[in-house]
Amino acid sequence: MIILSMAVLKIRNHHLPAITGLLDGLELAGSASRARTKLHSALLAHLEALGVSEVELARQYATLNEDGEILLDEAGGFTLKDPGQASEFVTEHQALMNETVTVPSLYEEQYGVLTKALVDYPGTFSGSDAITYDLLCDTLEEASTDGD
Q1: From CA 133, how far away is CA 141, in angstroms rounded?
Q2: Please, which residues have CB within 8 angstroms of residue 71's CB and are 6 or more apart in sequence?
Q3: pTM exceeds cut of 0.85
Q4: pLDDT tens for each residue of 76-91
């Protein structure tokens, strides 16, 4: 019997924008670049789905125009049709943002290759990029370990 264990990356929705942004800015070559590009593409698909889910959630609570679309204010936000439901909306939105997406590796060793590239990365990170770098490294290491 052959048992294949596949590495699976687990990322909370609220981390998706920062991680995709960091991956987009990394200068990598060869297999590390390929691993980054595959992960970046998969995360962008999850980010797009998250955006759709956020709009669907907002539509349930927001004031809508005559076409059934969310009525946006000048700042790009929206007004709740029932201000008494503010805490319910916030709770549901936080739950959505805390959901975990799972991204299986698309080819053997993908996450190991990317982990090594990040550990050996010659560039520097500061501020929120440094925090995101650390989070991504931890997440990749966990996926690489779990997939063994």
Answers
A1: 12
A2: 62, 63, 64, 65, 78, 79
A3: yes
A4: 899 999 999 999 999 9
